[in-house]
Amino acid sequence: MTSPLLSIKALSAVSTREAHQPVLRAVSLDLRPGEVHGLVGESGAGKSTIAKAVLGILPRTVKVTGGSVRFEERDLLTLPPRALRDIMGREITLIPQDPQTALNPSRRIEGQLTDGLRLRLGLSAAAARARALALLEEVQIRDPERVLASYPHQLSGGMRQRILIAAAFAPGPKLVVADEPTTALDVTVQKEILRLIRRMQRAHDTAVIFVTHDLGVVAKICDSVTLLYAGKVIEAGTTAAMLERPAHPYTRALIAAGPRYDRPEASLTPVPDAIFRQLRQDIEQTERA
Amino acid sequence: MADAALSPAFSRAGGKTLRALLGEPRVLFGGGFVLLMIAIALLAPVIAPKDPLEQDLMLGTLPPAGFDGAEAGYLLGTDDLGRDVLSRILHGTRIALIVAFVAASLSALIGTALGLAAGFYRGWTDRIVSRLVDIWMSFPPVLLSVLLVAVFGPGLHSVIAAIVIIDWTRFCRVVRAETIRQAGLDYVTAAETVGFSRPHILLREILPNVVPILLALVSLEMGIAVTVEAILSFVGLSLSSDTPTWGGMIAQGRQIVYQGWWVLVFPLIALFSTVLAFNQLGNGLRLALDPVMRR
User: Fold this and answer.
1) Which domains does chain B have, with CATH numbers?
2) Is 0.90 exceeded by the ipTM?
3) What fold does the segment set A34-62+81-91+174-288 form as a domain?
4) Which residues in A have their CB inside 8 Å of a CB on B?
5) In which family does this protein belong, per the annotation (chain A) (predicted)?
6) What's the whole-model pTM score?
7) CA gap A47, B111 in Å, rounded
8) Which of A55, A75, A91 is nearest to A177 (CA)?
9) CATH 3.40.50.300 in chain A, residues?
10) Cα–Cα distance between A163 and B191 in angstroms, integer?
């Protein structure tokens, strides 16, 4: 087995705002090069916090209390800011959640796509432009010349998300963090975006951390999954294994709670309260131990 | 293919903004009126029928054209010293607009600089600037302006200085709030990961997105500046009573309102419509340039 690209070991963190409430409880996960790993959980489960820790943009209200985030043998949590800046936006990039706000509304697409290429890869203006055009074609945008000359508000949400995907893959990163990249989009566009991320990831042999709350999305795109609840890893493994043979009752209940398009007449089954009680009890017990 | 349906929706951004501006009636009327005022201010010596300072006691308090005892050549009548009201209003436009543009630009400059810094760097900068604004806002503005001009001594410079010293807080508060909002958006994080310096992000990424709201504020501030100048002239703290200013005319007209109402009413109309035009322009700009509205 190849050595992991990213290795999170026993990462714990607390919120400084809410009386040191734990937000991550000894989370561990490994990511091999070229692997797509899903981080799944409800709101507040800690999936976004993990993503932010990997990106080095943890808010001041979250304090890491233990563990490590190693990226190719460098611990991102203890790296000096300069070294961290060299990695971020170059070796690790982000596909943001909301395509509305991730592009500067007062700048043309061209500048926003080429900034990084020129500043980080040292490309000339012409080379960066050529690279940007090629990337736009790769994410299946028609008429890339015109898109480069456009302002974000002239483009649809799906188009903007494609541009952001192009931007994320532009510097040839080893790891892309996708933070719920399809949540703000129409369902029909979602599917195309998922397929696009998958294809880009395979073509560039890039590892992806895919943050989502949607098990259906996980089934479509992820090789492996970590399921979180209240900052704790509930279950982890390959997607196929987890979805076909879920070990934890919470996982089983979540899978059962998903909408069934083949049986629309069946009402949705919420996760039973008993399971949440059990989860909280388990967490309290491990805390005390 | 999702893109096929979207491609024809392109248009030139500049043209679109311009069309949004011209499609907003407030911008058209407010902006048109302001342009007219600028033309009047520039051409005042040419278009004014009389010398605004020329007194003729034989022709004192003549009523406007169309009233009993009106004299040809004095369209809006004369004041108690026989000076032509129309000419004085036209010349008064100069003072009003100079104060409007200079005072509003200077307060915008100071307020925006402090607001941007406070909203982006937060921490101590923000604490100091915000406390300053709080302290400033607790003074009654008209009283403070009268006090300031009394300290500086009367004159155009003092009036402008007083307005700037008082009104930079308006810009500071709004720009700070907008900067905080913009700084929290993902495009700023993206610019950070690209590796731009903090000043670059503030001035090149955030500032352009604050400009629309700033333009609207400047226009509103011009209306306020015109009013404040009139107030200060009214209490005799602006320019010498010789110089034609609307506030000075209003003060003078108030004293002889029973003999000649027109000396009070016409400068009031000029003041009222100018402030209205600036306010309409400001509100219209805000609506037309709002990035959320111009999808």
Assistant:
1) 22-289 (1.10.3720.10)
2) no
3) Rossmann fold (3.40.50)
4) 55, 57, 85, 88-89, 93-94, 96-98, 101-108, 112, 115-116, 119-120, 140-143, 146, 150-151, 153-156, 158-159, 167, 188-189, 192
5) Belongs to the ABC transporter superfamily.
6) 0.80
7) 40
8) A55
9) 34-62+81-91+174-288
10) 15
